[in-house]
Fold:
Amino acid sequence: MANETRRVVVAGSGTMGSGIAQVAAGAGFSAILYDIAPEQLERALQSIAHGLDRAVARGRVDASAKDATLNNLETTSDLSSACKDAEVFIEAIPERIELKLELFGRIEEHLPPRALVATNTSALSVTELAGALKNPARCIGLHFFNPVHRLKLVEVVRGLQTSDETNRIALEFCRAIGKETVEVNEAPGFVTTRVNALIGNEAFRMLQEGVASARDIDKALKLGLNHPMGPFELVDLVGLDTRLSILRFLHEALGERFRPTYLQEQYVKSGRLGKKAGRGVYDYSEGD
Structure:
């Protein structure tokens, strides 16, 4: 895939969307970050630039690479102009099926007929989302991981009607942006989300039962099982509301083992959503 001639559109400028756009731009693609909220786009650009500045200061990224990434990145709140001449469209809006279906119902009138349509969903049905398209064969799941610029994996998820050609293009694109892939036939939660949801839910259950403190549970999994992050550190990064939404979906699809704990429900109701809110399992206003 010749990066210099390829236009990639990422819809949604939150943590995942901005991360995907940054990686695509850094790999030499023309990356367009689309969001309905201009102020969110401005925050996303500032966050990307700040992160690149820190990477340069730490010697992880060359200054020229930082400049090239930012030069390859554009933002817009106009869906039609974003999709013009696009060859890859990646949806990374909030994990709510009704929002994603509404967007998928609008994009085909703006995208070229051969453009790949991908969703970054971590659990929802690729097949159901593809059903909102006139050509469902062009739809596939590309499940990236946070932080996108550091984690190498992408789960490539085939829906019921995903074509072999779509799968081939998706794998080629992932390789072009420096990612490793695993191929998954659609199932609720795919591979990683299903396992992560179980671990995180059990961690909350232990915390709820007073088995150990959050810090000690995190420490046990990091030092005893060699996990790079503890389950509470991870859920604070992902967002407790996002994880709760996933658990509710998996509970409905796969049964009782995914029923969310009452404690996590309480945290979300109280606004303790993780790092993005300043407080989740840990309180980040105090430097956690």
